[in-house]
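A sample follows:
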Amino acid sequence: MSIPRFAKSSFSKAAWYAYNTYRKGINFRTQLSEIDALNNSPRDTIFAYQQRRLNQLIIHAYQTTPFYRQHLSGFEPSQNISKDNIDISDILPLEKQTIREQLEDLCSESVSPKQRIKNATGGSTGTPLTFYQDRNYWNQRNLSVYYFDRWTGWDFGLSQLIIWGALADLEETGNWKQKLNNYWRNQFWLNGFQLTESAMHNTFHKMENIKPETILAYPSSLYQYAKFLSDNELEPKCQLRGIISSAEMLHPHYRTLAETVFNTKVYNRYGGREVGLIAMECAEGRMHINCRDIYLEIDSEEPYKTPGDILITQLNNYAMPFIRYRIGDIGLLSDEMCPCGNQLPVLGELLGRSTATFRTKDGELIHGGYFTQQFYDLVGVSQFQLIQESLDQCILKLVRNEHWNEETRTYILQIIQTALGSDVSVRVEDVDEIALPKSGKREYTISKVTEFS
């Protein structure tokens, strides 16, 4: 490491510590140590801590929010407060539509409106969802991110390339405050919403000069950037410690290309704006659940065998408790002990958005990533989007190029009908462009069949 890079990293590390001490208090480093100790504890210790936090949250929700006071009318905190176990399975899952309709009633009366921090999702599955958090939630969320990101080789002060596209994060990219933040954080950005050739060329040259040690990216943006470098025979010379992939599904061909082009491991990070970091992939490739902040359930009679909707209870957001929140993803639990040695429980399988998971008449679930993998690098196809309208009908939008031939059409239809059923009708629509949704996250597969018929 050259002297200028070492000096910049040292300055940035000191700035990170100063920032976190200001935000989280003078015991910031002690908090980090406590998180390390908890997350590296035996599984029984982790579960006991999680259950205590769950008890406290439910009692808080009952005592301070109009919504849960009504929906937990039979719950008596004076009798349950000393219990080792509060069973939340009788509490109905919290739906997005319920949040939209009863936003204020879900907010805690113990947190003043001035203390609330308004936030919203990007709306990748439809209408953006508005909700509230508070400063403590954000402090605890960030502490957990610091813990898990260190699994990838990231640490305070190390240079990082961010390939991102969330509007809320980029709206001030051009102003001096954002530039100052990027400087002291030792970060530089490539806008995932505007992956032009000139922008990617400029970022490649910045990588050669700055030599980032980690990358944080949307999977689809990471893939497009890696493909650009590969197609143009541009080989990054920096020695990356790891890549953090977050906010979208990490498809196998995304991971393979990125790991080949950048010569490092991609770590999948799973979370959401509503609840923070849910799970993180370790060096052994397992997704460990963030039990310090999250209580995760699978809405399935056999959650270790049959996939179901993921339900999230956020243990830190006392401003607006999220209890058994149906986040919109499908997954499966695992009871294995990970070879990495960490005993945080494992999310056995993450099938992605429920709106990107296809269903057959036989009741089989097919993850949309199956189709993106099958259609990857198809000759004659620049872009595609497969929409499951019903169990009987799909629409396939295609942006064709000069290499198109009818054999490709036959192959695509065969893949779809083999997976979904030979009697499924597929209407092919030729389009000039497939527009990005407002969220900026490209949707290759969409299923409108959310329940079995």
Observations:
- DSSP finds 14 helices and 19 strands in the chain.
- The chain has two domains: 3-41+135-356, 360-447.
- The first strand starts at residue 117 and ends at 120.
- Residues 166-173 have pLDDT under 50 and may be disordered.
